[in-house]
């Protein structure tokens, strides 16, 4: 092998096209930028059933269900509508359902947009989360009750 030959010549991609958190946002269903959101993450958990037909030594899997969670952390600037609606839900026994749109802006002007509808609180929600010397933040866990809807994809 030559002294300067790399096996992966595509490894060092054009770093000018690499995206970071500043290129994305979480919007409310009415298009309002949720500017106090510091992070958000959407994950899909896929559940399969094992299947092995007679005469086949290999196991296979078939989809039985999937679940989508949307978790976000907001910087506490004021008690926003989420906390007010959450407390009202605890008092009434009927939790709120929110709609969100996750967006990522590509360097070429394209946008990735995904709608998340009927997101209900699920799991742990921070009511108060304080530590000395840190910004006050509130973490939310929600379950997405409708299939995510892909609106558009990023370009290259």
Strand content: 35-45%
Number of strands: 7
Nearest-integer average pLDDT: 89
Number of helices: 1
The end-to-end distance, rounded to whole angstroms, is: 32 Å
Radius of gyration: 21 Å
Question: Strands, helices and their partners?
Answer:
Blueprint: E1 24-28, E2 37-51, E3 60-75, H1 81-92, E4 98-105, E5 111-121, E6 137-144, E7 149-152
Antiparallel strand pairs: 1-4, 2-3, 3-6, 4-5, 5-6, 5-7
What does this molecule look like?
With 156 residues, the protein is mainly beta. Helix content is 8%, strand content 43%. The protein has one helix and seven strands, in the order E-E-E-H-E-E-E-E. The protein has one helix spanning 81-92; strands at 24-28, 37-51, 60-75, 98-105, 111-121, 137-144, 149-152. Strands 1, 2, 3, 4, 5, 6 and 7 form a seven-stranded antiparallel sheet that branches. The radius of gyration is 21 Å and the shape is extended.
Summarize the structure.
The chain is mainly β and 156 residues long.
């Amino acid at each position: 092998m030559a002294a300067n030959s790399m096996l992966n010549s595509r490894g060092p991609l054009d770093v000018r096209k690499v995206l970071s958190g500043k290129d994305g946002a979480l919007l409310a269903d009415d298009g309002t930028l949720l500017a106090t959101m510091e992070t958000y993450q959407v994950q899909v958990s896929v559940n399969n059933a094992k299947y092995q037909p007679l005469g086949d030594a290999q196991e296979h899997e078939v989809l039985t269900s999937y679940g989508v969670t949307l978790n976000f952390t907001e910087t506490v600037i004021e008690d926003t509508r989420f906390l007010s609606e959450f407390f009202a839900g605890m008092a009434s026994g009927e939790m709120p359902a929110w709609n969100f749109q996750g967006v990522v802006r590509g360097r070429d002007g394209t946008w990735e947009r995904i709608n998340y509808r009927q997101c209900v609180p699920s799991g742990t929600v921070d009511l108060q989360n304080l530590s000395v010397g840190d910004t006050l933040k509130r973490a939310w866990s929600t379950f997405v009750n409708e299939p995510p809807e892909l609106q558009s994809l990023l370009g290259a």
